[in-house]
Amino acid sequence: MVIHISEHGQNIVYRRIRPSDLEALEAMHAALFPIRYEPEFFLNVVNGHDIVSWAAVDRSRPDGKDDEIIGFVTVRVVIATENEIGDILGYGSSRTNQTLVYILTLGVAEQYRNLGIASSLVQEVIKYASSLPECKAVYLHVIDYNESAILFYKKMNFRCKQCAATL
Fold this sequence. Notes:
The protein is of the alpha+beta class.
């Protein structure tokens, strides 16, 4: 668990997502993303089935919701040779044990944005990926019209390796 006191006085704590976060996680995804995720996705997140995840919570909330998530990131470890990004990054089939960490979703409640929470969540992902000996990269997809997300990831030193226009 990582604790961060923001300049605005919030006591932000980063922890793993757990089963009690299910409803809040579903609500945040519905509010933040234009696509709907299947119930199985959320069950896999909260139970840690093939998905690793972290939550940000504001321990200083006075409304009794000091353990309710205000931000989250979900990731999956994938085999580089079984993924199109492995080809783009040049990981050939000769090293079948190389992995990548794929950021599935990242979001922060609107009232908590621009406080460094998303950056801290991405840093948790990078720290996790660095702990995996065969992990060669962290990657993600962003829809081309989400300019704020693109700028955010560029600020976090991600590079665009392939751009595809939306239809």
